[in-house]
């Protein structure tokens, strides 16, 4: 299984801010792959992992929007990694990067958090920096 995690903050007041680009990307990705009826039922809140989760079948891709607020994203991600025994190479974190111009993206595997609090939380909870990230 592949785990794609979009970082953001829950709640309507944050829904359109740049810091929520991870959530926005996952929403758009799911919308393009599902009918409007299916999309309406796609996201489910998983209380044990404190995240909205949707599974794209038959591809076996799980999309995740942690609901712990950005700075505690690692709690959700680490619980999902353990629960589904996900290899870190099968994890992709999507997050905003204010150092990149709007519309630019970069993907990299590993490295520091570059000061991003959500990535810092994930690194701390996984005790590893060795996972891919898509910076937007």
Shape, per Cα inertia axes: globular
**Whole-Å distance between the termini?**
24 Å
* Spatial ordering of strands, largest sheet: 2-3-4-1-5-7-6
Structural class: alpha/beta
Q: Uncertain runs with pLDDT below 50, 5 residues or more?
A: none
Number of strands: 7
Mean pLDDT across every amino acid position: 94
Give the SSE order as H and E letters: EHHEEEHEEHE
* Number of H/I helices: 4
Assess the beta-strand content as a share of residues.
15-25%
Gyration radius over CA? 14 Å
Q: How is the main sheet built?
A: 7 strands, mixed
Q: Helix content range of the residues, please?
A: 25-40%
Brief rundown of the structure:
With 136 residues, the protein is α/β, with parallel strands linked by helices. Helix content is 29%, strand content 24%. It has helices at 21-33, 36-40, 73-84, 117-126; strands at residues 2-6, 44-46, 51-56, 61-66, 91-95, 106-109, 132-135.
Summary keywords:
136 residues, alpha/beta, globular
Would you give an account of this structure?
The protein is 29% helix and 24% strand. The protein has helices spanning 21-33, 36-40, 73-84, 117-126; strands at residues 2-6, 44-46, 51-56, 61-66, 91-95, 106-109, 132-135. Strands 2-3-4-1-5-7-6 form a seven-stranded mixed β-sheet, with helices on both faces. Helix 3 runs parallel beside helix 4 (117-126).
Write the topology of this structure.
Elements: E1 2-6, H1 21-33, H2 36-40, E2 44-46, E3 51-56, E4 61-66, H3 73-84, E5 91-95, E6 106-109, H4 117-126, E7 132-135
Parallel strand pairs: 1-4, 1-5, 5-7
Antiparallel strand pairs: 2-3, 3-4, 6-7
Helix pairs in contact: 3-4
């Amino acid at each position: 299984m592949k785990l794609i995690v979009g970082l953001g903050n829950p709640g309507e007041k944050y829904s359109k801010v740049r810091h929520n680009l991870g959530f926005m990307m996952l929403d758009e990705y799911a919308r393009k792959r599902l009918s409007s009826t299916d999309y309406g039922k796609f996201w489910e809140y998983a209380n044990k992992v404190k995240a909205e989760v949707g599974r794209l079948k038959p591809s076996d891709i799980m999309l995740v929007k942690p609901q712990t607020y950005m700075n505690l994203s690692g709690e959700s991600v680490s619980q999902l990694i353990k629960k589904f025994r996900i290899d870190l190479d099968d994890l992709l974190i999507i997050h905003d990067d204010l150092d990149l111009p709007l519309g630019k993206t970069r993907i990299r595997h590993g490295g520091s958090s570059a000061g991003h609090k959500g990535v810092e939380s994930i690194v701390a909870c996984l005790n590893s920096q060795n996972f891919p990230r898509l910076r937007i």
